[in-house]
Design a protein that fits this description.
This protein is mainly alpha-helical and 462 residues long. It has 19 helices and 4 strands. Helix 7 runs parallel beside helix 19 (441-460) and helix 10 (233-259) runs parallel beside helix 12. The longest helix is centred in the N-terminal third of the chain and has 38 residues, at 109-146. It binds arginine.
Amino acid sequence: MANLWSGRFAGEPDREVFEFGRSFPFDRRLFEDDVRGSLAWVEAISAVGAIDAADARAIADGLLAILRDGRQDPAYVDGPDEDVHAFVERKLVERIGEAGKRLHTGRSRNEQVSVDLRLYLKRRIPALQGAVAELVAALADQAALAGDTPMPAYTHLRRAQPVLVAHFWLAHVAALRRDYAYLDVAAGAADCLPLGSGAVAGTSYLLDVQALAARLGFSSVAANSIDASSDRDFVSVFLHACSLAMVHLSRLAEDLVIFTGEEFRFFELSDDVATGSSLMPQKKNPDPLELIRGKAGRVIGRHAGWLATMKGLPGGYNKDLQEDKEAVFDAESTVGGSLSAARTVVAGLALDQARARQWASGLLLATDVAEYLVARGLPFRQAHEIVGAMVRMLVADGRDFGSLSVEEWAAFSPLFQPDVIAAITPGAAVAARRTPQSTNPAAVASALADVRLWLTVREGGR
Ligand code: ARG
């Protein structure tokens, strides 16, 4: 079969090597973007007289018909072509004849593939952000359901201080909202028109590149044609945003693997997302959470692999850049799939209030005991000393603060008055935190309201 460059060679390309270099099996995902880019391109070159108006009209009509066919039947976007650009051009010539051969006037695939992938990401990133928002909504629902139930917060995976269960959920929301913003940054990085750069030196027609950018919805134009033909920073930025999203999803998954396990059991996994064991009849495994955690490695690998591909490239387009697409598509699908699995798992979790409350009590109230003494005038370091000694004794006796009588409290320090009994509870501990980012119930309620507002504004904004 003839391809876009066969004129240069007397014989046929080696079949296996040609197959090795083909990108059509995966870049067909850029079909719509390629046609959109070409529709704008044909307008731009006809505006400067590089092709005549009749040909331009025939090309535009042909492209629109191809777009229709491709949308109607995905199987239409198929063939032995080298890449999606060759496919669209072949279909165009098949449909409108000679005029189709004028579409590529003044253009290089080097800039075309870059514009296609930029258009693709600009239209697909909002869908990923929508999936982030759906997970945020599920987390916010869990936060609302939890009410004022406390649970332990951990540092070093040791019980540290009581927090509201809602505060735990909103911690993951905070990270996901950053992911949403990083995806905005990635869309911004893609938002620059490379057309007009030609193969590497620029285009020989005085195109109105600003108008072309506006026509395709880009807010800026590449500054330098050499840079433009090899610039894939937007791919790196996107993969970085995807990697961070997976890191956050993986950490959420890990928290939930732990907290739904038998030893913790603060939450119960819904049966319909759990899996059993072929051998051990009692098992209820959190497979989707483990898979999310596992797939984080895959996306991080795509990101690291892509940076390695980029680092040694000489200036201008190099075929290595073709590796960008599989990295982008795989990261996109993996993040999208992980977000929606996480949403389903989170939505189905049932909180065991009694259990969470029970484990929010005990020696993890030690900070509050020390602060009780500080409030009564003792320097913090001394208070820490006294409470440390209390903890040592309580641990040795297998007891905790809740079992101490007023007399026993007073024996540790005369500053302990009978009101200490009511002051040292998970509820009091949570209320004692004061800052806006703390687990104070009013602060958590206002954080939750802020998340709800963000979700509605976001929906309104799109
Ligand atoms: N399939 C190629 C890619 O993905 C398109 C650009 C080809 N350009 C070239 N000079 N061979 O990068």
